[in-house]
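Complex 441.
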Amino acid sequence: MSQYVARPNNLEAFWMPFTANRQFKQTPRMFVAAKDMHYTTDDGRQVLDGTAGLWCCNAGHGRPKIVEAVQKQVGELDYAPAFQLGHPKVFELASALVEITPPGMNHAFFTNSGSESVETALKMAIAYHRVKGEGSRTRLIGRERGYHGVNFGGISVGGIVSNRKMFGTLLGGVDHLPHTHDIERNAFTRGLPEHGAELAEDLERIVALHDASTIAAVIVEPMAGSTGVLMPPVGYLKRLREICDKHGILLIFDEVITGFGRLGGAFSSDAFGVVPDIMTTAKGLTSGVIPMGAVFVRDDIHDAFMTGPEHLIEFFHGYTYSGNPVACAAALGTLETYREEELLTRATELAPYWEDALHSLKGLPHVIDIRNYGLIGAIELEPIAGEPTKRAFTAFLKAFEKNLLIRTTGDIIALSPPLIISKAQIDELFDVLKDVLRTLD
Ligand code: PXG
Ligand code: PLP
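Predicted structure with PXG bound:
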């Protein structure tokens, strides 16, 4: 087949991220093009994107406003130094973004990824307490099963064992809340699980152990994505917010997945009603087209830094590519697409249909839980005894053969299609997945 020549003849040099390299290189899976809801493989197949790439292509693929914005920008101003210099688009973008952040959260710091957004937020939290005269507040509290990217701060507050165990002692002064996953009590819940709000009380135990005066921030994903789509129990986030307020601890929501429409609003607070002090984002900010992240902070946190002599740098932090012009253009084109097509609220509209279609998989072999919110869903499979992850990975391979892209983590299948998915495509997605699940050993 003619497309086949697109496959490079040497796959050795590229060390692939989070990939079984040797297995992949024996039987490579390659995409060569993408448009709207579909990828094209190098053997000419159209694959339905059930995962928005890696939870990032929220506007779908090859969207004209984004493509045009990037093409125009790269010819006009390719790069401008990020430190002590600016360019118009980065200010325009920050202003546009704070229009959709929660009230009182009107400042944006740009990064290149979710991992960098997390490092930035953790450093901001510690430095904020210091500029406020509370330099003893350095401790960071994460949560078991949390995913906050792969840099040292992020894996330290994160709670995914395989991402941590190889890398030494990590950051000191970190503690963890318990995760909220409880299949025994909450299996097959539609929307937010009823049981588990009391798990937030564990923060009081941690505060009692370390004393509030040593704690800078709590960081959680409002909905934990990477670990297998764990919804917050009803009342849980509100309780975390109350305990943080009581003790002067900053609450950071890692919205790298939940931001930009996944839950049916711009950010998780639109869905769950709890507003953090700092939000980390990336992915949907540019619909995955150009790497970019943003950290949003409450005004008084930003303002606390804006003291001292005006010629001095207020925050010793930033990246060569913070606010890169081409990334800014991609983000502005993305926001325009979201606005014109009302994509940031589309998940709310589609949620009932999505939920019914997803839960129709109940009763299929090995399915032990199904969960959903907005345009996100997960199907948890019983692991094969002694061979965890194998059953779900087999489902991934079979789905790929049947022209459907799904994502698996452990024995959990995660689904998060682009927000432009049609009802007919939702039907197609679950028809294929049913076929796949029926044939699993
Ligand atoms: N925080 C959260 C909550 C994330 O989900 C990151 C930080 C890190 O972002 P970067 O851009 O540095 O990767 C993430 C990223 C998966 C999967 O399939 C999830 C992520 C990335 C890749 C795959 O679960 N989440
Ligand atoms: N390492 C070296 C030697 C550098 O000079 C720089 C940036 O100037 C970095 C790392 C950080 O790179 P970035 O700003 O792209 O994160």
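Residues 2-59+343-438 form a domain with the Aspartate Aminotransferase, domain 1 fold (CATH 3.90.1150.10).
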